[in-house]
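JOB MANIFEST
job_type = single_chain_structure
chain_count = 1
residues = 654
[input]
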Amino acid sequence: MTVSEAPSGPASIPALLARNVANHGDKPAYREKEFGIWQTWTWAQAADEINAMAMGFLALGLAPGDHVAIIGRNRPQLYWSMVAAQMCGAIPVPLYQDAVSEEMAYVLDHCGSRFVVCGDQEQVDKILEIEGKVPHIEQVIYVDKRGMRKYDHSRMNAMADVVAEGRAGHHRFEAELAKRTAALDYNSTCVMLYTSGTTGKPKGVVLSNRNIIETSKNSSEFDHLRPGEEVLAYLPMAWVGDFIFSIGQAMWTGFCVNCPESPTTMMTDLREIGPTYYFAPPRVFEGQLTNVMIRMEDAGRFKKWLFDKYMAVARRVGPDILDGKPVSGADRFSYWLGNILVYGPLKNTLGFSRVRVGYTAGEAIGPEIFSFYRSLGINLKQLYGQTEASVFITQQPDGQVRADTVGVPSPGVEVKIADNGEVFYRSPGTFESYYKNPESTASTKDAEGWVATGDAGFFEEGTGHLRIIDRAKDVGKMADGSLFAPKYVENKLKFYPAILEAVVFGASRDFCTAFINIDLTAVGNWAERNNIAYSSYQELSQHPRVLEMIRGHVAEVNQSVAADPMLAGCQIHRFLILHKELDADDGEMTRTRKVRRKVIEEKFADLIAALYGGKSEIYTETEVTYEDGRKGAIKATLTLADAAVAPAQRMAAE
């Protein structure tokens, strides 16, 4: 669709809301669990709240073109505030709720936000801490009143009071609100979302109503999403995926968005809701599987035997049954029995009993992990996307689901591979621009609308499926000219439950080395079963038996990497287990858990030098940030270990 073409249906999110009220007015639109009780709002009730909220914003002076920052956990009122801001002609800018105040200061200053909507006292405190750096903030609105009584309310209002003001003054504001809402069209800005900032300052990605609505429409039709779907809204509201699932697709299809009570109750709330449409990054699926395997290790002998017996059946025939492929009657009967005894109860425990479509994206997921969920009959698929694409670039069609590809181009999306292997796309979801950054916009999106993803990949012959190798900027060469693709190796390492994170080095060097973070839950449970005492993450990470376990995993990964002639040079020769988890608060990762390689290379330069210098141990001190914002230091002596390298035929990159 070109910019000049008019849409065939509603041209804005508020227009979709009005359509849903007309078509599904009495059906559930939002649920939230608070104080242990689920509360439900129908589409008509949600629209009434949003209208009153929008008029309350007008009463406070919200002007067209203003940016409204929104910070907090997933709550209906925060989603409503995004739509209410749009109705006023303003632009919602959700921020990561776990961001520290300095990170928020940059975004708030960059977008020039006059209004900030906060979920609770914690977020308000962050704003008050930085208000001297961001003087243009005029109004702070908070949803949860707890702890707010003694604050200075001269520029601060409870959301309930704003809504009440809107209702009381509706005669004054209805005409103006209707005028502003009617002025919205496909070219109006729908939302501005900031990138994770792996290589520098986050960039504000401007997405129009066309981007969000067309992408929501195409992706919903791809998976036959219907008004009766149930989704769980638990991912960061500042992430484009949550905006598409909880605003875009929800508004397009009219399905129900469910908000958990808190991150700690998320798994319980997931089981209670039983979503039919579900998304989680690989880390969530890996964590759930780790917990399952830990519990089975502690289970009785008969239960463990039953689990192993029927999971073997599931792994053999489960994916084929899910894809509708031929399976013998005996295998079907065994799988049916396994579903009664094992798979059904397990899916119920995980909260996946009703999942009709599940997605994972963001990082590669281990083939064994991916196959585990599909073997249970869960239709888990992969997609590939980014903020600048309004999420969807490729998706996996039913019946063509594999762990090693990210599928075919999504409806309406064109994908091409440049001569250097970089993936390019263009689609109705292609972002309008980077806010206040024409140089980056021009370098990312050309005049014909093609966007550089920054990822290297290729299309498989015959299937047309896209395979992603690595970030294009991270793909390099070893000293001997062979290909260096760190993420390829890192993802293989992270397939092991004991390994939470890995960072591989080796560009322009003679061999590869790695930093490894252990998973405290998985390794802690293993240590308990093996009578290994420890008092901290640091102590456990440096235990000799933990080191030997990780050494074994690295050796197995090297065997796997050696089987690929093009990437055999990426085998890990030396490694160490870090004494701390890589943390977004310390700047080592983004809020979406992506590694900031340059930061790590600079911060731990002494450790990298020791790995390549042949040392067997090194003393180091590392600055860390505590939850309350205070700085401290961790001191440790780390063991540097050699890894077994498999013989391989190495192929020089062309």
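[summary]
The chain is about 40% helix and 20% strand.
The longest helix spans residues 301-322.
exit_status = 0
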